[in-house]
Specification:
Length: 139
């Protein structure tokens, strides 16, 4: 079980690396002068590679190994069900990032860099909730 939990935590860290960094790229992308074509194209490449190369595999493998722990080793308790709600919120946030990625790809973004700075704070709240629920198991 400890190997499965280790992989669960490793891919959780990978997922959050993307959840923290992609919205930050959106902040700077939204601040970039539309006339700076080279800069805009560079952001598009970085965002696409981060979302599909790191963030999404991290999400899938966090969920695969978490579910393996949950169902394979018979974990239960209030902490786990609230944690699954946190995971549902993370999946919605992840897919929202995918939609925003598409908006930027088509130069259709309408949101300001200030909006993205607030948007970037959401994963911080969710990682506090997820890790405290998993480690402390308060209920
Ligand atoms: C569908 C998604 C997930 C499921 C089913 C799941 C389930 C589990 C289970 C059953 C454990 C073992 C608990 C123990 O050994 O005491 C665990 C450990 C852990 N999970 Fe998840 N998890 C999921 C997603 C996440 C996410 C998104 C995070 C981060 C926010 C996370 C953070 C952790 C941590 C840090 C541990 C280690 C706890 C410890 O060893 O004390 N998990 N998870």
């Amino acid at each position: 079980m400890l190997w499965v939990k280790s992989l669960h935590i490793i891919f959780m860290v990978t997922w959050f690396a993307g959840l923290f960094y992609l919205p930050r790229l959106f902040v700077y992308h939204a601040m970039t002068d539309p006339a700076d074509k080279t800069g805009i194209e560079r952001f598009k490449v970085m965002e696409r590679k981060l979302y599909f190369g790191i963030m999404t595999p991290g999400a899938v493998l966090t969920i695969v190994f978490g579910t393996w722990l949950w169902l394979g080793y018979g974990f239960s308790g209030g902490w786990l069900y609230v944690k699954l709600a946190v995971v549902a919120a993370l999946i919605i946030y992840h897919l929202w990032c995918g939609k925003l990625l598409n908006d930027f790809k088509g130069d259709r973004n309408t949101k300001s860099h200030v909006w993205f700075r607030w948007f970037n704070e959401v994963p911080t709240l969710l990682i506090f909730a997820g890790v405290i629920l998993a480690v402390v198991k308060p209920f």
